Amino acid sequence: MPGGAQLSILDLRGAARHRVNFEVRGEHPSDDTQTIYRVRDLSLKGVLIDPAPALKLGERLSLLLPSVGRIEAHCIWSAGGLAGFQFERILHPDELAAMSDAMHLNLPSRKRAGRSAKIAACA
Predict the structure, then answer these.
(1) CA distance 104 to 99
(2) What is the enclosing helix (H) or strand (E) of 119?
(3) All domains of the chain, ordered by start, with CATH?
(4) What CA–CA distance (Å, rounded) separates 96 from 53?
(5) 77 vs 99 pLDDT, higher one
(6) Is beta strand 82-87 parallel, antiparallel or unpaired with respect to 46-49?
(7) Residues 102-119: what's their mean pLDDT?
(8) Cα–Cα distance between 62 and 85 in angstroms, integer?
(9) What is the sign, positive or negative, of the torsion defined by CA atoms of 109, 103, 28, 40?
(10) CB atoms within 10 A of CB 94
């Protein structure tokens, strides 16, 4: 694909980030091998993986997220052993809440945060 991946979402860094530490199963589409990756940062728009998988910018990784299921993510940056991935679609706040509950991540609850926090998280 000329010029790298054509992402459907602009990475505007508007989504709230949550420091996390959990493992997910990922699959590189070119060879169908499955690998366990450690997620260190999570938002409605993407994840930070440490250590970074051997991918070039724009390459895809299929991640299996708890309570969400399989989601494609594009590598948008890689440096210092870390890699940032942007999801092909923005997660719904309810999906993030379900993942938090399933994994006991202690992410801010939508019920406690109130309407203004819900709106800010979706921005």
Answers:
(1) 8
(2) helix 110-122
(3) 18-122 (2.40.10.220)
(4) 23
(5) 77
(6) antiparallel
(7) 54
(8) 11
(9) positive
(10) 10
Q: Decide: residue 8, CB within 10 A, 0-12 exposed, 13-18 middle, 19+ buried.
A: exposed
Only one residue has tokens 């052993």, namely: 81
DSSP string, 31-88: T--EEEEEEEEE-SSEEEESSPPS--TT-EEEEEETTTEEEEEEEEEEETTEEEEEES
Alpha-carbon distances, residue 122 vs 43, 60, 68, 118 (angstroms): 10, 24, 17, 6
- The structure tokens listed for 69 are 């299921």
pTM comes to 0.72
Q: What is the pLDDT of residues 4-32, one digit of tens each?
A: 444 444 444 556 877 888 899 998 877 77
